[in-house]
Amino acid sequence: MAWEVGCAIIFSVLLVRVSAIDIYHDWVVAADTSINPISFRQPVITINGMFPGPLINSTTNDFVHKLISELANCFHQTSPTNGIQQRLNSWQDGVSGTNCPIKPGTNWTYVIQPKDQIGTFTYFPSINYHKVAGGFGAIRVNNRIVINVVRSWVENQVMNFGNVPDVVLMNGKGPYGHPLSKTYESFNVTKGKTYRFRISNVGTTVSFNFRIQNHKMVLVETEGSYTSQITLDSIDVHVGQSYSVLVTASQDEADYYMVATPKLLNFTDNSTLVAKGVLHYANSITPVTGPIPGGPDPFDIGFSVNQAKSVRWNMTAGAARPNPQGTFNVTNVTLSQTFVLHGSISRINTMPRYVVNKVSYLTPDTPLKLADAIVNGTGVYKLDEFPVKSINDVPTYGVSVVTGTHKGWLEVVFQNDLDAMDSWHLGGFGFYVVGFGNGEWTPESRYTYNILDPVVRSTVQVYPGGWTAVYAFLDNPGMWNLRSQHLKHWYLGQELYIRVHDDDPNPAKERPPPRNVLLCGIFSNSPPPVSPPAPAPEAA
Questions:
Q1: H helices within 379-500, ranges in order?
Q2: Using one digit for the tens of pLDDT, what is the confidence trace for 408-436?
Q3: d(C-alpha 191, C-alpha 142), whole Å
Q4: How far apart are CA 503 and CA 403, in angstroms?
Q5: β pairing state of 119-123 and 44-47
Q6: Which among 176, 238, 235, 242 has a CA at the least distance from the CA of 209?
Q7: What is the pLDDT of residues 355-392, one digit of tens each?
């Protein structure tokens, strides 16, 4: 039996009526100057006074209602959920292309559902650089009892900002033993029992390697997919990613280090870049001593790539649906579209910007989804001006919106032309991670793909000077954000939107605008769009 011990969040909701329930959260979002995770002044964003924010604990298909209240004179806010696919309902995706910001002194209610999903996810603020200050937390989506899970081992200043964090925290707490730390994270365990740890990188720039002194970890899940179980000494977790591992308390009753060390950076044991916590055995009277446990060379990209390739889908396990994950495979799919996306840095009007195919996204004042619903996008964006397979000759700004073929298979190749790690996320869908490679991707690279059991996840890493290939099945109509998870890359233009449209107006195909839809931009003084009566809940 695996005991749930919670999440190790390291940083540099959620609805059919058959067996689903409604879960209500009232959140007050505020700036706090008293918590100060380490011993110098550092304002943080709290939710109900908590940093990190409260856990959203739900079960597949539950409806989670989040009433978010912004304190006066605080900040504008939207709140995406990292990995929850918002089935048929991009209105609740919480990014600038789908939602107007919640203004200071007001509130708004998100209603979201982890439809046919299970696993480990996170939420965070999406406006500007708010994520740096907090406002993030964990989402846990549990299996419904009726589902049989196979029994398992059970700009210039901005450009110069944020490359290396000042400190890496574990669950909002400073490194164990560091003189600046006010407190540290500790997990209590009992010898002989097995525990499930959920590990999330909610940072903004740095990948890390996580390990527990003298303990093995069995990988069982990543971002809603059960994985083939592999035993690891350590695991690389890239920005925006989450994993679940099983750890058996099999050692002598003592205290042991839990550490997350940065990738592609030099560090020492006592560096603030090393998140350090303690695994504490009941009855232990032996504190942690000596150096932190050794891990892979932080500059060994080969280790990281090989480990990434070993993370594969468990084809026999049941997940959120009663049928096994392997029912949904990509061995015989016909690709409808291919996007080849180069991420790099360019200068536009002398200003450094992050670009995709030499286009830097420029956020309009009006959310794309709102413009789509009211005026078919007129005056806000032009569909398919963005080059999905070629690179512009001259870097430029653009409101990048491209067509995604409804119920078609999309291949996306992320080409990283930077000398740093990157990671990418697409709202509304999971990525079938079929390939990694060095240098330039070519059509012949497809012969190296793993199409037998590629893991499905919401965020995928792209190594410096390399490429990552994914498939996505576009069965979820809406306006979906495709972005870098590295905050500076995202903030300075490394994103676009995929418009997946179905001409059938049947509300079962896509949800209408919510009745409490916020208006802004060119619609600030307009009456809200008329929503038809809410459709009957979808059967589980």
A1: 487-491
A2: 999 999 999 999 999 999 999 999 999 99
A3: 26
A4: 13
A5: unpaired
A6: 235
A7: 999 999 999 999 999 999 999 999 999 999 999 999 98
